[in-house]
Every structure is written in C-alpha cells, then in structure tokens.
Amino acid sequence: MSRVHKPKAGAWIRFAVVIVYPIVGLVYRARWRGLDRIPATGGVIIAINHVSHMDTLVMARMTWQAGRIPRFLVKNTIVDKPVLGAIMRGCKQIPVYRGTTDAAKSLNEAVLALDNGEAIVIYPEGTTTKDPAQWPMQAKTGVARLALLAPHIPVVPVGQWGAQKVRKRRFRPRVEASVGPAVDLSRYHDAEPAGEVLREITDVIMAAIRDEVATLRDEAPPVDFYEYRA
Predict the structure, then answer these.
(1) Per-residue pLDDT at 90
(2) Strand arrangement, sheet containing 29-33
(3) Sign of CA dihedral 135, 132, 54, 98
(4) For residue 7, how far is the Cα from the chain centroid?
C-alpha cells in the first residue's frame, strides 16, 4: 500500500521503516480506514487505544502510510535501552518520565514538535488496556494537558483492533485501524487545566477513540470506561 503523502524523512526514520514495514507485513494483515482524516501537513495529535505491545509497530506503519512521520510519546525505560533506545533517540521519539520533575519536559517537547508541524502519537491509556473485554479503558490525563497546551492543534482519534490476536498464535491475524474526524475541543480552548476539566477532555477524546473501535468490532461499546488501578 502506497503512502497518502510522501514527507521528507532522515536516515534514522528510513532505517526504522526498513525494519518495521516488513515485520508488520509478515506478522499481520493490516487494513486502514480514513487515513485521509490525518492532515497531510501541520501539527497533529494522533490519539490511539493500546491493545498490545506489538501495536506500536503497527501504528507506526499506519502513520507512515498516512504520509506522516510519527513521533511517539514513549516510556523513558524504552528510550533508555541500549540498542532500541538508540533507534528511538535517532527517530526523535519523546521519552515520558512519569512522576518526576522531568515529566513536564515531555509535554513541552511535544508542543514544540507540534508547533513545528510534526505528528505526535500518544496512547492516552499509558499502557495496554486492562479492560477484560479489551475496550479502551479510562485514560490518564496527559493527552488533555497536551491538547490544552496546543489548542490550535487538531486531535485525531484512532481506534485499532487485532494486534493482540498475535498472542494467540494465529497466522497473520487481521489488524485494523479506523481514523475518526478530529475531536471538537473548541469549548475548552480557554479552560484552566483543573482536574475536572482534564478528566472531561480526556474522556471526550477516549469516547471518540472507543467509537472507532466499536466500528471495527461491530459491537456496541460499554457506556463507562474500565478503571484500572495499578
């Protein structure tokens, strides 16, 4: 499948594409819906549900095929690994240091990237879903904080399904992603980042993601988000 657009990419990104592209093709049969809803240019926040550790590779390929170079917000423990970390740093992925004084730096770096017209990819849940039925669960509020810091940037919800099936040793299971229209957050543009506001924005974004997952699963989604407490 050819890309919707063809952005300029550096050596590290092209190296990653050479690795990721065939791996996803060998492991899965990938199908996308609504790739044209991801803007061709300009800053964009791509918010996705998380069902498997493998789905990061799948979503990287999807974003690349949409014609954008993905910059993921990833756990710092991944970026700190010897070999994988070198690739992550070379591709300018953004480490997230939770619960530390460096936590705000991740959001500031993401905002700078958005202002420079880049595509930030974020898993609002922060980890793979713990919902027993694998629906998107209640997310952390980082995506809302980012949206408030960059109110001029569209937040595009993506629902994905199928990447988790590889754990069941199925041969090339189908993995699908559905891109929804940008979430309307205009009523929050002048809002202060209070706890209640952050939770409301996060839930609005996650509801849009959940609706896309429901179209892929052809099922009615749950009314409430599963609350996971580590």
Answers:
(1) 64
(2) 29-33, 174-179, 155-161, 44-48, 119-122, 70-75, 94-96
(3) positive
(4) 19
**8 Å CB contact between 141 and 194:** no
List the structure tokens of 68.
């954008």
Distance CA 145, CA 122 (A): 12
Domain boundaries, the chain: 11-164+172-217
CATH assignment of 11-164+172-217?
Answer: 3.40.1130.10
Look at residues 100, 128, 124, 150 and name the one whose alpha carbon lies nearest to residue 202. Answer: 124
What tokens appear for 154 in the block?
């569209």
Helices (H) and strands (E) in the chain, counts: 7, 7
10-residue mean pLDDT series, the chain (230 residues):
62 74 86 96 97 91 93 77 66 75 82 96 95 97 96 98 76 91 96 95 98 98 91
Q: Give the pLDDT score at 172.
A: 80
Both tokens of residue 126? 């922060």
List the beta bridge partners of residue 177. 32, 160
Strand partners, 160: 177
Within 51-169, residue ranges assigned H as helices are 55-65, 76-79, 82-90, 103-115, 142-149
